């Protein structure tokens, strides 16, 4: 089970970040990573790294060359088994 709010923001230094809010909660699974997708379909080229924590506020830098406007969803994705663990629209 994955729950909580997500935002995509531009930091003062110009970096684009995916922000998981204080109410974020994830019940656990192997190899969870943050990435983008569109229409419920995950895009593996947008992986931003392993989930820092199963709960609470955290942020991930969007990789250079990824156009956030091309996406509608943020995924918690299990890379090891190639399955979505949670998805939120932004």
Describe the 3D structure:
With 90 residues, the chain is mainly β. Helices cover 0% and strands 44% of the residues. The chain has strands spanning 2-3, 6-10, 16-20, 25-26, 32-38, 41-42, 58-61, 73-78, 83-89. A 4-stranded antiparallel sheet has the order 6-5-8-9, with no helix packed on it. A 3-stranded antiparallel sheet has the order 2-3-7, with no helix packed on it. It starts with a strand and ends with a strand. 21% of the residues are buried.
Q: What is the first-to-last residue Cα distance?
A: 19 Å
Number of beta-strand segments: 9
Helicity range: under 10%
Which word captures the global form?
globular
Beta-strand content estimate: 35-45%
Largest sheet: 4 strands, antiparallel
* SSE sequence, one letter per element: EEEEEEEEE
Give the helix/strand class: mainly beta
Write out the strand line-up for the largest beta sheet, numbering strands in chain order: 6-5-8-9
Instruction: Count every helix, treating DSSP H or I runs of 4 or more residues as helices.
Output: 0
Average residue pLDDT: 96
Outline the low-pLDDT stretches. none
What would you report as the Rg, rounded to the nearest angstrom?
A: 12 Å
């Amino acid at each position: 089970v994955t729950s909580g709010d997500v935002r995509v923001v531009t930091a003062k230094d110009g970096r684009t970040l995916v922000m998981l809010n204080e109410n974020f909660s994830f019940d656990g699974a192997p190899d969870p990573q943050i990435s983008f997708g569109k229409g419920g379909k995950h895009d593996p080229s947008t992986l931003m790294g392993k989930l820092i924590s199963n709960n609470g506020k955290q942020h991930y830098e969007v990789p250079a060359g990824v156009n956030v406007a091309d996406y509608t969803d943020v995924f918690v994705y299990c890379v090891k088994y190639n399955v979505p663990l949670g998805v939120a629209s932004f």
